[in-house]
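Translate structure to sequence.
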């Protein structure tokens, strides 16, 4: 399995405090935000290759970060060559760009650089190994109001995702998608097919409603207390 870290956003919602620093490199709970998840991933013996994709604006920042510690130097850095938020490829577009650049031919773990998540990655990989299906990490926030107009809403039948709606006004469940995914090797062509149909490539979850009509997609549940979307200044100040 290979691992791709998505770090190509422009932090528009946190611009007033990032001051030119990518969100993933902001300090949170005593370490950089990206390090909380990355350090877990680097301990996975089943991951053969690591790569991080970012944009032209933040390429020097991540280049310096990856050079700062020996353990990070195994991560290949990819520049998607985008300089402004208006020209961004979107998360799905960045995944496609990375896959074309890397020419990887293996199962793919996708991780965010800018979300505070505590997850036992070995258990996630074990879940995937047993099922061999596309997997999206999900969590139950226990309150539909927390999802309304804000998060992606997931409907599950046991472990299978049977419904997904982005930022619904009236959510059908209190389960939301967490931006961690595993794509089996033979399913990655579906990402290209999705993009060729002119679909929205901005959010990594935007592909889920389409995928569940093409193949079986599973949800791997984590507890709500282990997932924090630091998407606003107020949220960041809580966890800084």
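Result:
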């Amino acid at each position: 399995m290979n691992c791709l870290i998505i770090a190509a956003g422009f932090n528009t919602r946190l611009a007033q405090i990032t001051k030119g620093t990518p969100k993933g490199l902001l300090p949170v709970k005593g370490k950089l935000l990206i390090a909380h998840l990355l350090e877990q991933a680097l301990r996975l013996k089943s991951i053969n290759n690591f790569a991080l994709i970012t944009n032209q604006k933040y390429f020097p920042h991540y280049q310096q970060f990856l050079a700062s510690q020996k353990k990070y130097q195994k991560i290949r850095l990819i520049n998607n060559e985008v300089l402004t938020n208006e020209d961004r490829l979107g998360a799905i577009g960045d995944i496609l760009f990375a896959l074309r650049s890397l020419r990887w031919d293996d199962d793919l773990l996708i991780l965010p650089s800018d979300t505070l998540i505590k997850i036992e990655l070995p258990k996630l990989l074990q879940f995937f190994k047993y099922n061999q299906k596309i997997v999206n990490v999900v969590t139950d926030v226990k309150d539909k109001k927390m999802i309304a107009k804000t998060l992606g809403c997931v409907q599950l039948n046991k472990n299978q995702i049977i419904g997904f709606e982005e930022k619904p006004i009236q959510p059908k469940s209190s389960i939301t998608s967490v931006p961690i995914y595993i794509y089996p090797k033979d399913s990655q062509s579906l990402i290209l097919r999705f993009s060729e149909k002119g679909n929205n490539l901005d959010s990594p979850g935007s592909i889920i409603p389409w995928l569940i009509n093409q193949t079986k997609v599973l949800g791997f549940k984590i507890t709500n207390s282990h997932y924090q979307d630091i998407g606003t200044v107020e949220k960041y100040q809580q966890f800084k």
